[in-house]
């Protein structure tokens, strides 16, 4: 079952597995360890849940659930992080039942979406080229999002660790500075869209749509056939942006923890 209760069929699981794999490559954690098929991702330099969670990848891997969660909790505590399990359609039902019975909190819900670039984009040239300056992009992202400047070293480390080709897009105005940013990560025939943001003072002017399409055109020219994105379910503006662009829901996930995080 997905976190929203919608059934994911066995025929959907290969697509889920592939999107999970490209998602991990697109936004790499600093520390990656496996316990069986449970992928433990931890990142001291950034508090993102996606970078600090246990990710079960095999619905049949249900051995020693309580012992393995205790080991994971110790590992997370060493990083000063709360234990979080990322519950996807790949999470074993026995693990979900264990968390339910123990009263684990449900911390946020995210929707994974995809679009066919052949349906979305005409074959046309690039109107915006990506930047190669990671430091400049990170500064722009922090300013556009209003994030804590203390996150700069961690965010820089994450972006530098992305192995597939990444396009860093920045829109700017001379008297204002950065107005919108996004990252397109092109991984074979799939492209992930990450970190899209528009400065609060410039919202409602179509900048989100413009920078999204600029990054998707770049990814398509690089060979991507489909694009994916992960959007928090309570972010109505972002969901509307992607759905207007033709993105459709594929599956959902949520974070579960023994304590609210």
What key phrases describe this protein's structure?
single chain, 261 residues, Aminopeptidase, 2 domains, 8 helices, 29% strand
As laid out across the biggest beta sheet, the strand order is: 4-10-5-9-8-7-6
Largest sheet: 7 strands, mixed
What's the CATH H-level homologous superfamily of the largest domain?
Answer: Gcn5-related N-acetyltransferase (GNAT)
Task: Please identify the structural class as seen in this structure.
Answer: alpha+beta
Number of strands: 10
Q: Please report the first level of CATH classification, the CATH class of the largest domain.
A: Alpha Beta
Q: Residue-averaged pLDDT, rounded?
A: 92
- Overall 3D shape: globular
| Beta-strand proportion | 25-35%
Give structural notes.
The protein is α+β, with helices and mostly antiparallel strands. The protein is built from eight helices and ten strands. The chain has helices at residues 13-26, 65-78, 93-101, 117-120, 134-145, 152-160, 207-222, 236-244, and strands at residues 31-35, 38-42, 53-56, 85-87, 105-116, 165-173, 177-187, 190-198, 226-232, 248-257. The protein has a seven-stranded mixed β-sheet, with helices on both faces. A three-stranded antiparallel β-sheet has the order 1-2-3, covered by helices on one side. Helix 5 (134-145) packs across helix 6. The mean pLDDT is 92.
């Amino acid at each position: 079952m997905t976190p929203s209760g919608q059934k994911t069929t066995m025929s959907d699981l290969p697509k889920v597995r592939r999107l999970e794999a490209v998602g991990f490559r697109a936004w790499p954690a600093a520390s990656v360890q496996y316990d069986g098929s449970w992928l433990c991702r931890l990142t001291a330099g950034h508090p993102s849940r996606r970078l600090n969670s246990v990710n079960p990848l095999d619905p049949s891997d249900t051995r020693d659930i309580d012992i393995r969660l205790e080991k994971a909790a110790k590992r997370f505590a060493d990083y000063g992080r709360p234990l979080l399990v990322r519950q996807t359609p790949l999470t074993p039902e026995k693990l979900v039942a264990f968390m339910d019975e123990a009263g684990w909190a449900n911390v946020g819900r995210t929707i994974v979406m995809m679009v066919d670039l052949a349906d979305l984009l005409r074959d046309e040239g690039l109107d915006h080229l990506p930047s190669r300056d990671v430091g400049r992009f990170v500064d722009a992202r922090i300013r556009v999002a209003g994030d804590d400047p203390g996150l700069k070293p961690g965010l820089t480390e994450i972006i530098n660790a992305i192995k597939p080709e990444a396009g860093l897009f920045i829109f700017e105005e001379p008297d204002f500075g950065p107005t919108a940013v996004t990252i397109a990560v092109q991984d074979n025939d799939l492209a992930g869209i990450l970190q899209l943001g528009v400065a609060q003072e410039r919202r409602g002017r179509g900048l989100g749509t413009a920078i999204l399409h600029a990054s998707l055109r770049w990814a398509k020219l690089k060979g991507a056939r489909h694009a994916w994105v992960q959007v928090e379910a309570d972010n109505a503006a972002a969901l509307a942006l992607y759905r207007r662009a033709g993105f459709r829901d594929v599956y959902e996930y949520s974070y579960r923890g023994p304590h609210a995080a």
